[in-house]
Design brief:
about 425 residues, mainly alpha, two-stranded antiparallel sheet, 16 helices, about 40% helix, Terpenoid_cyclase/PrenylTrfase, signal, transmembrane helix, membrane
């Protein structure tokens, strides 16, 4: 089996899902990450606080991995440790925003604190699900509304152009908080207006119709599988947790119908999601039921994380049978990736199993719930106790940050960097 590149979210200065670094940086044209521009090397790993999931430096993904871990545990009936929930709630800034990691939560957030919509959106989804944090959720939603762009969407970092991934994460957060995303407008535009503007329509190549781009590049949209999976959820108003789709439930998956001379895309979010799912199915079928990625100059390799996202997107669209094929691939090929990537990866797999009606405690011979639990504080309780934790589940955790992402950030921090997204911000070349 080919080596699979780890994938995980990074915060504010790196791609939330590690994309092929050179291609992404060139295509996005992002500004240099502040953390890399100001220093020649990453800061030393801080002493990890009690309650934090993962064993490595949380500088770029602390809130993200914590939120997914807590949300996944709650979804499968595990009652998270109080220390884990307290740590997450304590990361919130006074204005309601979250950043990746605050080493000293007693020190207020200042103008230099890199607030982030993806981290905030993830925290909202987790805290809303856990309950008892209404005030924190309300403040976070208020901050998200305050940084909404005039096109109705969001970027990872406030003030930057909207992107499909960040907009989708915020839509999921609004829905989790009990808000109707369509009613949250700026400049007369809703989040769905911004999101659907990223979809490739009838004027695109036939095999790219229905796909979403992360952002326009020089006014053009490029099909991006990860942005497509994120947008398929966002267009349906879904967050990270998707109600289980039965294995036999399979609404037809079909590409957009284009009449002669038609151009542009649909204005119907549900139709947009259907087109996105059709693109994902075609990509999965063409690549052996996984989505591909490749480092610049390296051979193409399976992208496990993006494949997980595609499975959840298909389940959300009631394409349960279609989701089973890539799910079976994940059951065979995701164990090493999860061990290397840490708590966020285990959480993603747990949520994918939940969305497809699979058993996360018996996933390809692995107990994902036990492995996830082992990366953080001992749970307070569980409706269905798991078996012994996966071997090395915690020891192999790298905090969700692939080694090559840090290397590339150091190499290119002076000139180009990465905007984070709700998913890997990868443009398929």
């Amino acid at each position: 089996m080919a080596t699979m590149a780890p994938k995980a979210p990074l915060l504010a200065v790196l791609a939330r899902r590690a994309a092929p670094a050179l291609a992404t940086a060139a295509l996005l044209g992002a500004a240099a990450p502040a953390a890399y521009a100001d220093s020649a090397a990453p800061s030393a790993s801080p002493k990890l606080p009690d309650g934090l999931y993962g064993t490595k430096d949380p500088q770029y993904d602390g809130v993200w991995r914590q939120s997914l871990a807590l949300l996944a545990q709650h979804t499968v009936g595990v009652r998270p440790a109080a220390s884990g929930v307290t740590w997450l709630a304590g990361q919130q800034c006074a204005d309601g925003a979250f950043t990746a990691f605050r080493a000293d939560p007693h020190k207020g957030c200042d103008a230099k604190t890199m607030r982030d919509t993806n981290q905030t959106g993830a925290a909202v989804q987790a805290l809303a699900a856990l309950g008892g944090h209404d005030a924190a959720v309300k403040k976070a939603v208020g901050w998200l509304k305050s940084v909404q762009n005039k096109d109705g969407g969001w970027s990872a970092m406030p003030g930057s152009p909207s992107d499909a991934n960040s907009t989708s994460v915020v839509i999921g957060a609004l829905a989790a908080a009990g808000k109707k995303p369509a009613s949250v407008t700026k400049g007369g535009h809703s989040p769905y207006d911004a999101l659907l503007a990223f979809q490739l329509g009838c004027d695109a190549k036939e095999d790219e119709r229905g796909a979403f781009a992360f952002q326009p590049k020089d006014g053009k949209l490029a099909a991006n599988a990860d942005a497509t999976a994120a947008a398929a959820l966002g267009a349906l108003g879904e967050g990270f947790v998707v109600a289980p789709a039965g294995k036999d439930v399979d609404e037809p998956v079909k590409a957009p119908s284009c009449k002669a001379g038609a151009s542009g895309g649909t204005h119907d979010p549900r139709q947009a999601a259907l087109g996105a799912d059709a693109y994902l199915v075609a990509q999965l079928d063409a690549n052996g039921q996984h989505l591909p990625s490749a480092m610049p100059g390296a051979a193409q390799q399976p992208d496990v994380g993006n494949t997980v996202d595609a499975v959840v997107a298909l389940a959300a669209g009631s394409h349960g049978a279609a989701a089973q094929r890539p799910l079976k691939w994940l059951e065979k090929h995701s164990a090493d990736w999860a061990r290397q990537s840490g708590p966020a990866a285990y959480a993603q797999l747990v949520l994918a199993a939940h969305a497809t009606g699979a058993d996360p405690r018996a996933f390809g011979g692995h107990d994902l719930v036990a492995a996830l639990n082992a990366t953080g504080p001992k749970p307070a309780g569980s409706a269905a106790p798991s078996a012994a934790p996966e071997k090395d589940a915690q020891d192999n955790d790298n905090g969700g940050i692939p080694w090559w992402v840090i290397g590339v950030g150091l190499a290119f921090g002076a000139g180009i960097g990465f905007l984070i997204s709700g998913r890997k911000k990868k443009n398929e070349l």
